[in-house]
Design a protein that fits this description.
Blueprint lengths: L5 H4 L9 H21 L9 H9 L10 H13 L10 E2 L8 H13 L11 H17 L6 E5 L2 H15 L9 E6 L5 H8 L7 E4 L9 H13 L3 E8 L11 H11 L3 E5 L23 E5 H4 L7 E5 L18 H5 L18 H10 L2 H23 L4 E3 L7 E6 L9 H21 L3 E7 L2 E7 L7 H22 L6 H7 L1
Parallel strand pairs: 1-11, 3-4, 3-5, 5-6, 6-7
Antiparallel strand pairs: 2-8, 7-8, 9-10, 10-12, 11-12
The structure holds pyridoxal-5'-phosphate.
GO molecular function: aromatic-L-amino-acid decarboxylase activity; pyridoxal phosphate binding; transaminase activity
InterPro entries: Aromatic_deC, PyrdxlP-dep_de-COase, PyrdxlP-dep_Trfase, PyrdxlP-dep_Trfase_major, PyrdxlP-dep_Trfase_small
Cofactor: pyridoxal 5'-phosphate
């Protein structure tokens, strides 16, 4: 028999007796986050791991606070105060977007109901909603009715999943050491990780060169396909990128598709970043040819303004998904599949899986696809304006004009011999320093990368709230830090202070 006091004895367990506590706790959490967001005058506090680590280490996990407000007070100190805020217009670093409110609504609902998308008997409508979204995404890609796919934890998992299917579809007896995956030198590192996880040899991923715009050169791909064939190697997949991480470049998909079709090779398009174009009314054509892929990665948490995680892998022929299927008697026995019971675990690499699709569902139901595409178009427009700004600024050199929303550039010390060994080292060190000093100030957060072995700075613009004035301001800050390095710190290079700041 249930005790009449059971609810009071288990106040933290979410149940019909604790919904008032749930409501209060969620309202309290929302108020704290709203307060933080309203007050954040910079994207980051600049805290160092050395300063924050002792505060977190000092918390005694054996002694609970028994109170939401007290736990949230503590959280303010160890997390909310120093978190990196992607919604801030001067967060310009990685592929993190600000998120839309309908998606946050979805996040709140999905974690409270806590469906697990592995089987119908753990999710019911959740399964069907995910399936509708896969169908919708496949339609946007231009796949036919045989297409299918599944939500994943991110682009890394989507790429791994696609390459697993590609390997199985290659139907080859070739030893793993003879299998090859071809991508461009600007492709994402998760392709290499996937190859390793699939047990391919260390030289399995072959990169081909890119053109001046950092797009895969089809002629180089043709040469590599031919070379592999003559060497008795089996190309199990070509990975084209629609939105490279550093340059936002989009490989020439129609030409690459034609080469893959002629060679009978699986084409995977990594559109983790570029997938936002699927809902762009002005730029959808940049993805022309994607419909000829065998599989596609989309990261809704990069360019659909969704919270982490929200990603999917899609395949032109859904039958390929059978390669990831396993029928467990306790969970999804084969007889269920034969009866048409929709168990998503039959298609996924994961078993227990979040209902991340709900965030995209509510986004589409509240805002609609055009409004999401408009947000993405705005950031692409802003990046084009930012390119013009940097290109016209003699303090900087810029690499390429991105068709998406990145900007790779670097500060050039005005009086250093730019092309000599010492001048280059000075420029490298000044740019490295500027990035770190800026992050330490918390005024803005930018990324860095290397191009041709030299250190560059990178903006990834994903926030429509970022104005050109914000960009100009961050450029001034970077130039100030870099020049300070050149004037004051470079002469001391090697001193403990300088080594510390730049390490
Ligand atoms: C082109 C590309 N592919 C794949 C990934 C990996 O995605 P995730 O971080 O969601 O695993 C990234 C991440 O930045 C990316 O830029």
């Amino acid at each position: 028999m249930t005790s009449p006091h059971a609810g009071a004895a288990r106040p933290h367990l979410f149940s019909d007796r604790t919904v008032e506590g749930y409501r209060r706790a969620m309202a309290e959490a929302t108020a704290r986050v709203a307060g933080r967001i309203r007050r954040a005058d910079r994207p980051f506090s600049g805290v160092s791991p050395e300063r924050l680590a002792p505060e977190i280490a000092a918390i005694d996990l054996e002694r609970p606070l028994h109170d939401h407000a007290a736990a949230l007070d503590e959280l303010e100190r160890v997390y909310l105060r120093d978190a990196v805020y992607f919604h801030h217009p001067r967060y310009l670093a990685h592929l993190n977007c600000p998120v839309v409110i309908p998606a946050l609504l979805g996040e709140a609902v999905l974690s409270a109901v806590n469906s697990s998308l592995d089987t119908w008997d753990q999710s019911a409508g959740g399964t069907l909603i995910e399936r509708r979204l896969i169908e919708w995404t496949a339609g946007r890609i231009g796949f036919g009715p045989a297409a299918d796919g599944v939500f994943t934890s991110g682009g890394t998992q989507s790429n791994l999943h696609a390459l697993l299917l590609a390997r199985e579809e290659a139907r080859t007896e070739a030893a793993p050491a003879r299998l090859r995956v071809i991508t461009s030198e600007a492709g994402h590192f998760s392709v290499r990780k996937a190859a390793k996880l699939l047990g391919l040899g260390p030289g399995a991923v072959v990169t081909v060169e890119t053109d001046g715009e950092r797009r895969m050169r089809p002629a180089a791909l043709a040469r590599e396909l031919d070379r592999c064939h003559r060497a008795g190697q089996v190309v199990m997949a070509v990975v084209a990128t629609a939105g490279t991480t550093d340059f936002g470049s989009i490989d020439p998909l129609p030409e690459i598709a034609a080469l893959c079709e002629a060679a009978g090779v699986w084409l995977h398009v990594d559109a983790a970043y570029g997938c936002g174009l699927l809902v762009s009314r002005r730029r959808r054509r940049l993805l022309d040819g994607i419909e000829r892929a065998d599989s596609v990665t989309v990261d809704f948490h990069k360019s659909f303004f969704q919270p982490v995680s929200s990603s999917a892998v899609l395949v032109r022929d859904g039958a390929a998904l059978r390669h990831a299927a396993h029928h467990a008697d306790y969970l999804n026995p084969r007889r269920m599949a034969e009866r048409g019971i929709p168990n998503q675990v039959d298609k996924s690499l994961q078993t227990t899986r979040r209902f991340d699709a709900l965030k995209l569902w509510l986004t589409l139901r509240v805002m609609g696809p055009d409004a999401v595409g408009e947000l993405f178009d705005e950031v692409v427009d802003r990046a084009a304006e930012a390119y013009d700004l940097v290109a016209a600024d003699p303090r900087f050199e810029v690499v390429t004009r991105s068709p998406l929303s990145t900007l790779v550039f670097r500060y050039l010390p005005p009086d250093g011999p730019q092309h000599g060994g010492l001048g280059r080292k000075l420029a490298d060190d000044a740019n490295l320093y500027a990035r770190e000093a800026l992050a330490a100030s918390g005024e803005a957060v930018v990324a860095g990368t290397t191009v041709g072995g030299r250190h560059y700075l990178k903006f990834t613009l994903l926030n429509p709230e970022t104005t050109l004035d914000d960009v100009a301001h961050v450029l001034d800050l970077l130039a100030g830090h870099a020049q300070r390095y050149v004037d004051d710190l470079a002469p001391l290079a090697g001193s403990p202070e300088v080594t510390h700041v730049c390490s």
